Amino acid sequence: MKLKPWVKIFLFFILASIILFFGTKYFKKENAQIDKSLLDKYNISEKYASKTLEYVLKNNFYDEKYLEEYSKIEFNDNANFKEILTTFLPKGYKGEEINYLFKLSTNNLEKLKDKDYQDIHNYYQIKNFDVNALDRYNEYYNQNEYSYEDVVTYVNIKLDLPVYTDTVEVTDPDSILVLVNKYNSLPKNYSPSDLEYAKGAYGNNVPMRKIAYEALEELQKTVKKEANFELLPTTAYRDYNFQNTLYSNYVKSDGVASADTYSARPGYSEHQTGLAIDLKNPATSSNIRLTEENYNWLKNNAYRFGFIIRFPKDKEFITGYQEENWHIRYVGKDVAKTIYENNLSLEEYIDLYVTEY
Length: 357
Ligand SMILES: [Zn+2]
Hints:
Layout: H1 5-27, H2 36-42, H3 51-58, H4 67-70, H5 81-88, H6 95-101, H7 106-113, H8 134-143, H9 148-157, E1 168-169, E2 184-185, E3 195-199, E4 205-209, H10 210-227, E5 232-235, H11 240-254, H12 256-262, E6 276-280, H13 292-301, E7 307-311, H14 316-319, E8 324-330, H15 333-341, H16 346-354
Helix pairs in contact: 8-9, 9-16, 11-12
The structure holds zinc ion.
């Protein structure tokens, strides 16, 4: 289509005005408007004019020392705008750094108030960042080749500390999401109150929590139908004393260091939750739990029933356990799906999605 010259000129002008209109709007500094007499009163050069400066002057907390910094702080309508400026500028935070502080959680901000100046520029955008662990993050970052995001998660999980140190007894042993590992233990006398007994691979009765029992039944029916093999539990809930005997025997034969890589110390076993199940295909020989094919099915389908593979190969450094492709853990369908789709360990999931920092 050929346009007449006057149409071209007309279109050109329309386009030019649109660019001019939005362009100036975009580049216009919102701080240009400031009462000139206010600046004169404090003898401040116009080049420092900003919305933040205006606010500081009008609210009577202007301090000449921070003139340069005020111009770098983006004004916002946070209720604690004044408090943040008056608390953190005297601690030595620069204007740009003050901007970061508005992105922190209330918890982190409170913790930061009690500390001297901290350099947080590598961390403030990371959602599970904990101000109190800053020194450990920096040290772990220097010792490893991880991203800052991974460093934060791994340190929160305590991977920078030796196993079984700084341990905590969980306060929610009945929760479907309870995390039991080498840093988090169950109370010695905890046992679930809703145990059901499933038919086991060795003709035994295997106790587990009702919700896991029902999910297992669903999984068993489906695996039979879709992949034509059977999965039976060998063990699920184990009490503290049982684990104590088990672990002591392993230590006697292999020593503590070795036993710790494949067996949990009493109180630190996920089996005590009643939500963990060890599986076996009864058609395989006695020393093989699952064939590779069996495991592939389980790995890609367990989440549909609310289970996760708790100790996969690529998460050994996080879980602290050698791969156990037969050990599944009930966490509920939604959580299991997120963990499966994002290739997370339970430790990472809890830290990224549950714990509030
Ligand atoms: Zn197990």
